[in-house]
Amino acid sequence: MATTNDLKNGIVLNLDGQLWTVTDFQHVKPGKGGAFVRTTLKNVLSGKVVDKTFNAGTKVETANVDKRSMTYLYKDGTDFVFMDGDTYDQIHVSSEVVGGGADYLLENTEVIVAVHDGTPLYVELPVTLELVVEHTDPGLQGDRSTGGTKPATLETGAQIQVPLFITTGEKLKVDTRDGRYLGRVN
């Protein structure tokens, strides 16, 4: 248990049997009346975002979420298998929990897996990854008015938009949050 005075970004609360992470909070002391805490909460499992207000000093139940650095090993059916580098324990994480990050997962990628009571909640990929272009059509000179883009398939199977000068076999830096091309890697 903690009070609303202990709230900070990233803390996970257990409200009505559901896990919510605090994405934003603000202590408010109006000129008249008691102080309160205005928070923005994100549901850990569904991703739903809500605003909730607590009276100052109210007790809230915190959830014990264990964030561990793990290495992605391989895909087993619909599950992804990760290994803890310290204990060498392997856990299976369903594709629903991995979500869109599956498009950028290569074997031996270091990720953070959040676990609560033995259940994996989410997988946090590094913000940027270096991936090789598996296939892209050649860009034709003169078929654009300004810097155009074309689709490219990465070694993980993900499709992203890249500038016309990118060729098959080049290594690119990709933003894993939205699949944006960030540049070439030498």
TrEMBL record:
Domain of life: Bacteria
A biological process from GO: peptide biosynthetic process
SMART domains: EFP, Elong-fact-P_C
InterPro entries: Elong-fact-P_C, NA-bd_OB-fold, Rib_uL2_dom2, Transl_elong_fac_P/YeiP, Transl_elong_KOW-like, Transl_elong_P/YeiP_cen, Transl_elong_P/YeiP_CS, Transl_elongation_fac_P
Annotated pathway: Protein biosynthesis; polypeptide chain elongation
Database matches in Pfam families: EFP, EFP_N, Elong-fact-P_C
Domain spans labelled Translation elongation factor P/YeiP central: 67-121
Endpoints of the signal sequence: none
Keyword Protein biosynthesis among UniProt keywords: yes
Keywords: Cytoplasm, Elongation factor, Protein biosynthesis
One Gene Ontology term of the molecular function aspect: translation elongation factor activity
GO-annotated cellular components: cytosol
Compartments (UniProt record): Cytoplasm
Domain Elongation factor P C-terminal intervals: 129-184
Main location (coarse class): cytoplasm
Family: Belongs to the elongation factor P family.
Function: Involved in peptide bond synthesis. Stimulates efficient translation and peptide-bond synthesis on native or reconstituted 70S ribosomes in vitro. Probably functions indirectly by altering the affinity of the ribosome for aminoacyl-tRNA, thus increasing their reactivity as acceptors for peptidyl transferase.
Protein name: Elongation factor P
Gene: efp
